[in-house]
Amino acid sequence: NGGDGLVAARHLALAGRAVTVVLAAPPTGPAVDNLRALEGWVPVASLIELPDCLRRAQLVIDALLGVGFRPPLSPELADIITRINAAQVPVLACDIPSGVSGDTGAAELAVQATATVALAGLKPGHLFHPGRSLAGILLVADIGVPPPACPQTQLELVDAALARSWLPHRTGNAHKNAVGRVLVAAGSAQYPGAAALVCLGALRSGAGYVRLASPAHPPLPPEIVRTAPIPTWDTAAYQALSAVPADAWVIGPGMGREGSAQFVPAFLSQGRVPAVIDADALHALSAHLDQVRHYQPGLVLTPHPGELAAITASNVEQIVADPIAAARKAAAHFGQPVVLKGGPSVTATPEGQAYVNGSGNPGMAVAGAGDVLSGVIGSLIAQRVPVTIAGALGSYLHGLAGDLAAEQHGVGLIPSDIASLLGQARVQLEEGQVKDVYSIRSTEAPSARRSIR
Hints:
453 residues; alpha/beta; five-stranded mixed β-sheet; 19 helices
């Protein structure tokens, strides 16, 4: 990014600012002309002078490395980055903080930026930690580069504008059976609370009618209706539930692997309703891959990295290192949309479209938060949101409620806090009151602004 840094130096000098350029290496290509344009009126210092320059600086523009950087850092660059971070001077990073991988956000040693100007569009390295936290305030500058022409190779950031465009809307004559009936098959004696959290997530995100089928008996809000008793999760349990009216099912949280091994195949072979498959139910899918791929009403799979590694016989570290590729690969493998939970979550379709969630915070890393998310996604499907985008919209709405909860409780938030704020999150989203974490400054069209290069 050296050439861009030299251009920035020229414009700052033209604006009357006192600018010093410190070159880490001789410029090449077009950067040679940009350096020549500074000769005689902008001082160019050597690396030996860097400590003194940092002591006098009020702002550092980091233009050492670009998005194509691959580790490791050279010792010289590592020393420069260490000195910049130690100087305690505000840093504006050009495109991406030096030392961060533009493809994954990975970094061993990198500049801690106060703000980052992403050129042309967001990159995965801006959205995944540690790159996400190293970027500081994130702004996008339009430099005339068009978004990718092929949507199947495109990543898209789910921000407030996109999420709002997906929200289902109710008519004035709506009634409970017309706005989403969700059947939750979840819970066990060991994990009774999971079922309750799923139901809360479904209700608070707008479902009109939520029924719970479970061998467990967790304390439930009076609004949740229990089905006939389910003694255990097996084929007979599915047969008993198959006639229950529902627009979407949520299957798996707290169910236990032994029960899901019988219940899930029965659902896949006979079911006619779209479903969210989560937690223990995910482990029953690999043995019935053909049925999963051909399940016509549609499924949304919601694994975390450990679950995805288990059901695809893959490596957790590789999944965490490149969640976009992992989510896409899993969606293609199962032939159904996959929500890979994490910070941030990635939703991928079998066709290769991927959405990176733009809401949420570290306080949501708590057991049970995923159960609420499953309820939210199931509720949206029941409200006629297509399965291909229900995971992405559900992740954003869930993360937004988590952000509201974090304002009150910080890292001490609990899943029921998230569920209780889903209604408020949806109101704020519908009324355009949401301020995105990413501050977009661009003249591009909205769809292009969200594109991740």
